[in-house]
Design a protein that fits this description.
Layout (H helix, E strand, L loop, with lengths): L7 H24 L7 H9 L5 H35 L11 H15 L5 H23 L8 H25 L1 H12 L7 H28 L3 H6 L4 H23 L5 H13 L3 H23 L10 H18 L6
């Protein structure tokens, strides 16, 4: 099926349209919620701040969670596009690298054995756990004469993810206090997160966004096969290593701030390809923008489904992603 934006001019024109939609989503996230606010209050919260509850909610709650949801969604969308291109698996997402499981394991271990309680401290343990999982997956997937292949990295990610999840569940079962402290983080959420958390990892996110765009061309060449890519003069091992590092940074920084959020990195590359076609560089750009809008929209919806209480944003993305996964599998997306 022909993509909606079938030529370069339309693809370029679609970017400012997507950015406008992202701005609208951000403003909607700041305005809508359990507490009543309006557009005038949003402006006055920064131009004429008076310390009222309304202004405090806007500055300290709504704006931070909107920006965090946007940054995490952008990272997960880009990460999904790169993962699916690297593994040549259209149903791959951050879970395939075992990154969410590794981050969760290290956070749970830190809470249990080091008595870590602060979200700002969760960030670095989650980042480290995701990085260690990524290294383990890459090392395990590189074993053998053929080196790193899509099938081997997929199997390695599944194995490391299952192993880390089993250890996590063992710790949680043995320590109910830990379960109570990390349960909401494990479900994935941007509620209650401060901008300071995002500031800690944002530089890594930004560098990885640019890096993913720059490496998208060589990664697209890998889709032709390693032999063809090598024949075209590409250093396939270096490209795979650099791509794996970017995946770790994107997924690790996202899970560090918002917890393990599934399915965003699965769904967004498919939506992007339906808009711009299979070229990886365009898919990376649009998948990131779609991911940002999708996660902000999911966060807004999470405030109203069980009002006045909120449900974790990870539950909302699961409600969106699970039917999509089933549909894609039934339509034969696994086939090459």
């Amino acid at each position: 099926m022909s993509p909606v934006l079938h030529n370069r001019i339309l693809k370029i024109a679609g970017i400012p349209a997507a950015l406008l939609l992202l701005v609208i989503a951000l403003l909607a996230s700041i305005n809508f919620g359990v507490a009543d606010t309006d557009w005038r209050s949003i402006i006055e919260a920064y131009s004429q701040f008076n310390g009222t509850n309304e202004h405090l909610i806007i500055q300290q709650v709504r704006v931070p969670r909107a920006l965090i949801a946007g940054a995490v969604g952008l990272s997960l969308g880009i990460c999904g596009a790169v993962i699916q291109a690297l593994t040549r698996n259209p149903l791959a997402d951050v879970g395939i690298m075992g990154l969410n499981s590794g981050a969760s394991l290290l956070v749970v271990a830190a809470v249990t054995f080091l008595s870590i309680t602060s979200l700002s401290e969760y960030v670095w343990f989650a980042f480290l756990g995701a990085a260690l999982s990524g290294v383990a997956v890459y090392a395990l997937g590189s074993i053998g004469r053929d080196g790193l292949t899509p099938v081997k990295i997929t199997l390695a990610g599944a194995a490391i993810g299952a192993l880390a999840s089993s250890f996590t569940h063992t710790i949680l079962i043995a320590n109910e206090k830990t379960m109570q402290e990390v349960l909401f983080w494990l479900a994935g959420s941007v509620e209650g997160r401060k901008l300071e958390l995002l500031a800690q990892v944002f530089p890594y996110m930004a560098v990885a966004w640019v890096g993913a765009y720059l490496i998208a061309g060589p990664v697209h060449t890998l889709l032709l096969g390693d032999d063809v890519a090598t024949g075209l003069g590409q250093r396939t091992v270096l490209v795979k290593l650099a791509t794996g590092l970017l995946i770790v940074v994107l997924a690790g920084s996202s899970v560090a701030v918002a917890g393990p959020i599934l399915f965003v990195s699965l769904v967004t590359p498919h939506l992007a390809r339906s808009l711009v076609g299979p070229e990886t560089r365009w898919v990376v750009v649009y998948s990131g923008l779609i991911g940002a809008v999708l996660l902000i929209a999911a966060d807004i919806a999470s405030r109203f489904i069980a009002m006045p209480r909120e449900i974790p944003i990870g539950v909302m993305t699961a409600l969106i992603g699970t039917p999509f996964f089933i549909y894609a599998a039934r339509k034969g997306t696994f086939k090459k």
